[in-house]
Amino acid sequence: MRSTPLQGKASWIRRIPELAKHAKLVYFVEEPTSMRIPKGSLVFTCNREVAKSLRSSILIDSSFPGKEELYDHILYEGCRLGKLRPGDWVIISHLNGGDGDSITQKKVPDWIVLLVRPPVFETIQFAKILSREGIGASFLIGDERRLRRVVKRRILRFNPFRGNEVLITRHEYWQDLKFFAKLDGAFLIDPQGRVIDCAVQLDLGEVEIELSGGTRHYAVASATRAAGCTGVVVSEENKTISIFQEGRRVLQIGPLKK
């Protein structure tokens, strides 16, 4: 969901008490600031020095192609921490230590609910590890029967997860999963976080989707529309993580900072 800029920074600052009655106050602080941040506000930063000086701030370890992607990630993190809920109106003050400060209004979208549930959230966390190591991979999380319908063929002759209880939510399995992530094809994960298959080639189908990215991104985006699932793609080339729902990219993370 695109943000709505608020005009007049000076007048906005005077209206903080009024705005706080109707919206959550969120600050993204790029550089150290002398501005007094209202108590109870959510504060995010990508700057470790700012994180040290503002102890209540939340450090984001990613870079973003634009402000919209950054703001969506802030809303995602706020919901994950239980500070925001879908439907909340949020006022985001973007402070960069200069004349480029901006003020934006956004509404927390409904799709964020699915991203903060354990199976999807842990898949994203695992994807961050793969991204840092330069390993490309793709994941579909949803109902097993519907996921099977978008599989064109298996790349392996056998399913290494058949009869095994391997959960994406259990970090002790991540090292083994990393091995299978290096293979072509996608992981299939059920709503409880159980890995039910890997190295499957997805059927691109006949759904037309306007999307930037390679075949892996298109295949996962198409599958999320056909199977009503959530997709996660790690780009080996640019180390970004894309999350898809209903055939569109709803969130992009990265590249991550080392």
Number of helices: 9
Distance between the termini: 29 Å
Total domains, how many?
2
Q: List segments where confidence is low: pLDDT < 50 over at least 5 consecutive residues.
A: none
- The pLDDT mean sits at 87
Strand order of the largest sheet: 8-10-9-7-11-12-13
Summarize the structure.
The protein is α/β, with parallel strands linked by helices and 258 residues long. Helix content is 29%, strand content 25%. It folds into 2 domains: 4-112, Pyruvate kinase, C-terminal domain (Pyruvate Kinase, Chain: A, domain 1, 3-Layer(aba) Sandwich); 117-253, 3-Layer(aba) Sandwich (YojJ-like (1), CATH 3.40.1700.
Overview of the molecule:
Helices cover 29% and strands 25% of the residues. It has helices at residues 9-14, 16-19, 48-53, 67-80, 112-115, 118-132, 144-148, 174-181, 215-227, and strands spanning 4-5, 24-29, 42-45, 58-59, 89-95, 102-107, 137-141, 151-154, 186-189, 195-202, 230-234, 241-245, 248-253. A hairpin with a 5-residue loop joins strand 9 and strand 10 (195-202). The chain has 258 residues and is an alpha/beta fold. The chain has two domains: 4-112, Pyruvate kinase, C-terminal domain (Pyruvate Kinase, Chain: A, domain 1); 117-253, YojJ-like (1 (3-Layer(aba) Sandwich). The two termini are 29 Å apart. The protein has nine helices and 13 strands. The longest helix is centred in the middle third of the chain and has 15 residues, at 118-132. The strands form two sheets. The chain has a seven-stranded mixed sheet, sandwiched between helices. Strands 1-6-5-2-3-4 form a six-stranded mixed sheet.
